[in-house]
Batch of 2 targets.
Target 1
Amino acid sequence: MEKKNENSCSETDSTLILYLYGESPEPAAFEAHLEKCAECRAQLAEHRKTLGQYRDLPVPPIYIDAKAAVLKANDKSFWMRTRFLMPLAGMAIAALLIFSFYLPTFLSNSNRLPITEIKMNDSAASIRTVTADVSSAAESISNSRDLESVAQLDDMISELDDIAEGLSSF
Amino acid sequence: MARMSEEELFAEYREGNDIAMEILINKVGAPLFRTIFRRVGDRATAEDIFQDTLERIVRHRDKFDPAQTFRGWAWSIALHRCSDFMRKKYREKHAAENIYETGHIVDPEQTMSGMEKMANFTEALESLPVEQREVFFLREEAQLSFKKIGEITGRPLGTVLTQMRAALKKLGRAVEG
């Protein structure tokens, strides 16, 4: 490494920086140069002073909660990446709510009975079936000329018919 | 996982391993925050930019080029955010006041001189050309070699070293004055 002229040592500028940061490929050779070059020595001292002042600058302590930071960043990232889906989701939910609100009206207008009416009609039908069975049994009894039992059965059949009638008209 | 390189940890995170990212943040978090703080000179702003940087790293993780270093990429994001802030909102003369008002000086006996030095450095860093400032922070804070900085920035090693030398000279003159 040689000086270009008395006032400059530009050939070693890059080498000086590498040496300053411990990246010089030939530190011994540069140190030998330093012994002979006042300019490089002054430059090196100046840079070290500047870096020393910089590194001494106070930095406020910070507690980094890495887990929380990752969660927050993931969460923010998720919302940022899905932000265009939010309005679509909102519209879909609104459409579903509106549809659900008007569904009963739609169904009734389609001549379909509410669930409760369907169940009551089924119950009435079941009662009529039982009534028919009982009537059949009563006929058998009447053939046996047990008039009292026949009368009781007739009363029961009438009551069942009334119940069935009531359910049908509910 | 503790022995994995930062690039390997980030690759793990990209495959869904959040623990890897936690380890990575513990490794680079402090120097990254220090860089940001020394760049903007205000703790609250530095914390915001730090969190914003993490969020951008997460959001753009699929854009990370495995051929580059994680530190170079992360620092690049952070420095861009700092530059955005400095361009839009920051005035160097308020930096020392903010630090003093928030009471975040570590050593109270260095209050005024620390504030002045901080302000001087912040102003000096802001006055550097962006390439010189980038090289300075990548070497000084991200601890990347000059060769690696050259690879990241696409500049010849000689250019990187010249830029670093120029940055140090300007910073030296600024803090002396």
Target 2
Amino acid sequence: MKKYFLLIISLLLLGSAVGCEQKDSGDLNFEQLDNHIISSDVLAENDSFSLYWDSENKCVLFKEKTTGYIWSSVPQSYYESGAHGGRASVVMESPIIIEYIDPETGLTAEAFAYTSVYANGSISTQVIEDGIEVIYGFDDYEISIPVQYTLQEDSLRVSIEPKEITTGKFDLYSISVSPYMCSIMNNASEDSYLFVPSGSGALIYSDERAEGKRVYSEEVYGRDYSREVKFDTTNEKKINLPVFGVKNDDRGIIGVIDSGDGQALIEAEAGDKDVGYSSVYVTYFYKGHDAVEITASNEGKSLSKKQADGFADNSLMSVTYYPLEKGKSSYVDMAHKYYEVVSTDNEKASIETVTANIDFYGGIEVYKNFLGVSYDTLTALTSFDDVSNIIQEIAEQTDTPISANLVGFGKDGVSKKLAADGIGVAKVYGDSQDLQNLIKKCQDSGITLYRDFDIANYSKTSNGVSTKWNSAKNVLGTRAYQYIIDPYLRSEQDGEVYYLVTHEKVLSLFDKVVSRVKKDNISGVSLSSFADITYSDYTENVGYARADIKNMTSQILNTAKENNLSVMLSNANGYAAIASDIICNTPLSSSKQNIFDKEVPFYQIAFHGCTVMTGESLNTSDDMQKTFLKCMDTGISLQFSVIEKYTKEAGFNTDYDFYAMKYDECKEDMISYINESKEFLNRVYDSKIVARTEIENGVYKTDYSNGISIIVNYKDTSVTTVYGEIGAEDYIIVKEEGQ
Amino acid sequence: MFGNLMKKKFTIILVTMFCVLSFCATAMAESIPYETYTYWQYDDSKKVVSMKSCFDYVKTIYGSSLGIEAFKNPSGLYVKNGKIYVSDTENNRIVEIHSGGTLSRVITECYSETQALSLKEPGEVFVTDTGDIFICDTGNARVIVCDDNLQIKKIIEKPESDIIPEGFEFKPISVLVDSRGYIYVLSDGCYYGALLFDKNYEFDCFYGANDTEGSVLDAFNKIKDLIFGSNEKKSASVRTLPYQFADFAINNDFIYTVTRNTKYLSNASTGQIRKLNSGGSNILRSIKNGKLVTSNSYKFQDEGYYTGEINSAIIIKDLPTDFISMSVDSDGYIYALDYSTGKIFVYDSNCNYMTIFGGGIGFGVQDGTFVTPVSISVDGEKIYVLDQMNLSVTVFEKNDFGEMYFGAQKLTLNGEHNEAREVWRNVLKEDANIQLSYTGIAQAYYAEEDYESACEFAQLGNNQDLYAKALQETRNGQISKLFKNLVPVLAVLIVVIYILYRKVFKGKIRLKMNKKVKIALGSLLHPFINFERIKYSNEGSVMIASVILAIYFVSSVLRHTCTAFSFQVFDAEEYSVMMTLVSSLGIVILWCVVNWLICTLMSGKGTFKQIFIATSYCMMPLIVKEFLYVALSYVLVPSQQMVLTLIEAFCLIYALFMICVSFMKIHEYNFFQFFKSVVVCILGMILLVFIIFLLLTLAQQSYSFLSVIFNEIFNRR
């Protein structure tokens, strides 16, 4: 017994000793560089652009041949202004800024190339095909980073191969690339702005304010769900599209994060008096990371950043900058350029109009009691018969194409208990005959019917997805617990957790979903959560694995297409949106951070005419009329969320706004809005948005490629425009002659 | 009369107009990027529900947007008739802003006939109906009273009075003036309440101090120290002082105060908001179990605690709702600002939660959220919040739904139930989660004497009191009907049964009963004889005792789960059958074990089997009690609770009597020995429970210790 006890203690001590080691010996591969800087020269050129190396300022210049305009990591106007020195030089003359982890404290700190490479480090350059590779050596921190600048057909690509990065004593945490490539001088005109893709999109002006500089930072695609989150102070719209840009009067440039987007942040700084410039740029996390509680006391807990070990599968960090044509540099042009860039391989032949999509919510699990023993049971809020009747009523009274989506009709209702909602349908909604009747009614009425599946979240073993073996792992190698955050107290309260399906299992789970949908003869499949959230999975020690999601989504969409299924995605991220048949719940606003000066419908402009989109649900929004106007403004379809029966238990459900979904209470508005919008939406659904202008504060004119325009007045007073008077919170439609 | 009628109609028209126009003429205001919610309150419970937003974010005003230097550590905000006064403390100025968000003027000094007096670190401002401005010139320890042209009328300084304690520091941070011209000054660090000055600016008294809280233990310790404490100990003893007001507001000459509830400084978790009459007494009332009670015991806060973070590195847990400022609108709705989270809590004059919105928890980077909210002011339909760290004033405006909802509750509180009903119907149409709408409609039906509908809506709104009142009215009608129809039928039925029994079966029906069952049931009516037979003839049955215990447990569960709504709101999610198990079977088993252990030492003759059987048999009156309670709860209304209480008391006393008899028989005790054994048993039970808890805690601690070691090793890989 004593022997066993000693053995256990020895093992524990050994484990501790190994655990206390700061870094894996495999990472200690840093070697100081020989300073080698090639002289200034043309590195590459094509008909439109040329790429130069400026050895004096150690930066790359990207020149438009026709106009002679130069884009550079250090703005040309900065050099011309002669306002060098101080913090401005440190920040603006650093083509790369890193954050490293202090091994002593576990906290992060910044290092700038200007001070840590040019002054106290080393730099090495070498010419490569179509460009140059510059290796920045942060010698004080024993970190070196090779950055490749290459000229593309109409763009400049800046990329970092993570495998080539070397580190020593310090861990590298993040890398900000060319922070001033997309920048404007402070206090530029109102026609100059930074664009960030927060939610629908937002603009930031560069004015210097007495309160100081404004800072913005959000993760592309939102937070990595594999990270442990026990509290969340904000309720933000995420970044759906990996793009950012700047408009400088009649010039503009966008940066598209074409690789490593899953580990990227988009950051912006505006109105910094010390620097004199405002900019937007991308920052990459070097590895997967999480915060770990390392000490505990009654008053608080310290956090430390933990990085994932190994990054064999880490994807290239790459951002490509596309200068926009002179005079065509607005956010509308940025959106068109973005779509042009990402749609190359995914061009769609045609799309079909849908005036509205209605999400029908099936059921919720409620507590019941038998002799004091509480148990969960599924209660139907909407049955198949209810859906049939509602669809029939709406179809009869609107006579326009609509789609319907069955949400939470699986075996666990709208809860996240079973992977893919248990795949089958629960009997509380009706028998299979009822479902077939519904499907037939939809087919007869020309309504596309979707059924929604949550293939990402679950909390109970089912359908071959085990909570123990098939749940995604976090950076620590343990199961990635998803705590249920109380939306009111903003923190985890009752200890309930759910899990994320491993990347490996998602595909086989989707195959089962497809089989079931085919068997039921439903025409489409909706994946509300999958295209909305992204998460890493460190199950196989593959390093930062969020990039996998792109490939998985692609495979899922291909599987659906092979089976002739339409795909509906909700609030889809860029990589998924491009290939879906209908995108629901597209963001109608930004995350409303106080740094933003204006919200713009960049998301809708980018995909309009290429994919059918709906806005946020009208009947559950705070202001139905305003949500309706936003849909009309950008020509996207209407979205409604409906239940047939409201119960107190449904009202107490904190995840869904069932309190505003009862069909009887909202049907008049639904029918009225659909009828009001159908003619306009059916005419513009396949047209591109060619221009959007603010006629006056709160009044916007949107022009479509087919010659139709809509002028929307969001104000609570009527306005008179050259197109006529527009009532308060109203709109007018203007058509070109012949329309 | 006619005037009142016209007023009512006008109100209805106005509110109805809001309902009709709700979708066609909303203000141009942004929706807010955070949750809006409220609480359902019933049966001492609170349940959170989402709700439609009542206030829209309008704009944020910065110093820079006014074309002046940024605010610097602003500390106070006051708004009247659209004019906003920001106390820009570290800039030593008051910034006056027009309602449109443009600069009106910057006040840095006020003028007397002879000189200009500069402001130093000014606190809050108050403007009277006549236009006089009262400025708390905190840094100069004075309140300046001036007219709109800043010509000084009076300067209020530290009063000379016997009431003012020695060493009192006059640091005015907030000021109010009532319609009689009485001035209330809040001085920082003053625990005695507000300083009250009369209309001649003469100091009158301290007004409305908070009460100090003390427990019996505190009192005991104090007495002990007084008698036995040394002089050093006496001088070192801590004096309990009342918490000072964080802020106050005035409405209809009533002063409303708010007290903070921080994690470290004070712990005022109830009665944070008070409404004081002229005598300084709290007259704010909340509804508790259908009765209006003082707000002193009311929890004005979220059900739960928040978690915050400092510099992305330190997590702060268990932050309570901490009101730092408050305001009251002309309809008596109370707006309280939570410093911990940046949320705004709105209550009606009965302390019902109207809505809760806002947020940020120290990170408010979104529109309508806050980093360090310090002051709130309400003017008409607009709410203004000052954020000290973000150097801004945020403006919210009541939206159409808010107008409708607040208007409906106002009608209900004014007793205009009939007028309120249609408005509540429209509220429900947009948001089915509003508890007050069900109650409002129920009250309207009750006033209309449609008691069945009143019952229906009262039950939907979990309003037991109203339900019971309506039920009682319904019962009055039902009982008279019952007597008319059922009594003759019952009489005929009884006669028919009697005749059948006597004439047809000739009295030959006899229940064949097991002997042991007979003993068990007999112990209820003849405890002396039957417990003696259990003791000496071994005629007790463990199985029957177990069945009785099981029935006792079931009856206890039924009492919790099946009692009529008018007596109890059952929440399946919250109910724990384990608690019932512990409080019924657990106590019986514990009693049996301890009694056996104790009585073995006290010359008791009973075996464990006999103790178990006797105890179980003694539970029969309690079973009767539980079943009767459940059954009668459907017949009686809460006003007839006395009947149930009497039945319960009788059954309980009878059960105690049976225990007394049974244990005297089983252990062959006299009454005195029995009494002694019971006292020792109770102490033994307490000791055993304590040991069990100790072991459980030890096990938990060991588990935590091991899991920390495991995590430390695992996470440091």
